[in-house]
Each structure stands twice: as C-alpha cells, then as structure tokens.
Task: structure prediction
Amino acid sequence: MSLILDPAAQDLLFREAHTANTFTDEPVTDEQVKAVYDLVKYAPTAFNQSPLRVVLVRSAEARERLLGHMSEGNRAKTAAAPLTAILAADNEFHEELPKLFPHFPQAKDAFFAERAVRERSAAFNAALQVGYFIVGVRAAGLAAGPMTGYDAEGVNKEFFADGEHSVLAVVNIGKPGDDAFRPRSPRLEYDEVVTTV
Result:
C-alpha cells in the first residue's frame, strides 16, 4: 500500500530534509513558530502530559549566554542562526494534568507523585515531541539543525534556574544558507530493523 501523504510533502518532511548547518539571515517570525507549535502540539504523549517546553533564543544577550555552553563545533552555526530553540522537558508537567487529562485528574498524584518517575516520563515524552517539532519546522518550509553538543548542566542552570526543566536538544532554525547540508548518510533498510515474530 502506498502512502496517502502527497509525494512532495513526503520529500519536504522526510526524504529531502537534512540537518542544516548554515542559514540565511532571513528572520524566523513568532508567527511561524506559533504555526509550527499549533501543528505539533498534537504529538502523542502518555496521559497527554505534553512535557515539552521551548525557549526561543532571540536576543544577542541570550545568544551569548547560550554560546558559552555549546560545544566548539556548534558555536559558530548557533551564533549565525536566525533563531535558536532550546527544547526541554518540564519535570513538573504533572501540575498540568488536571487540565490536560481531565477525565482522570487523579493521574497527577496516582502516577507522578515521585520526582524520579516524572523525570523519566518527561524525558521520554518530550523527546517524542522534539521529533514532531523538527518535522513541524520542516512543514513551515524552514530547516532545522538539532544538536546535542552542549553542556546540559550549564544550559539548565543558565536558562532553567528553577531546576524544574531538563534540556533535551538545542535546535537552530531558519532558511538554509550556502552549503547548509552535508551529503546524506546511509540509513538502515527495513529488513535490518524490523523483525516479525
């Protein structure tokens, strides 16, 4: 059976999409980011917990604060990107469960009273949302440059001083610039990944 999604959309979101390493100086607007979020907020999460939190790094002062925590290989491209998003898991997501999971508001205390349980659940479910966020950026006609090369403890202290969040990824966003993409690396094929039992 073929996919229902239009082939051009398949290419935009998956086949032709690459991690971008350079960007033009065209700004990424708040309206574009809101449109991305309004699309990707439907990502599946357990108990609809939706633990992803996004910090948009726009000001020069905030960018300097972030650059000090990026690995050397990620500093220049982060400095030059029109927008950088810090994607984090909210370890206190359970406080929103009465709103997000109204048919069982007791889930907040029944399943997530312990911090360690919340941290594991937040990390996994926010990671699902990170994947959707990247696809949403692509759907907006933008390129994403997700990175894990940073000092996580430093980013957490710098941007989440409350200790309630854990950074998962830093993503540069914008229109791809010159030589933005490296050649596509190989992928595993279906029969290398899927086993039927």
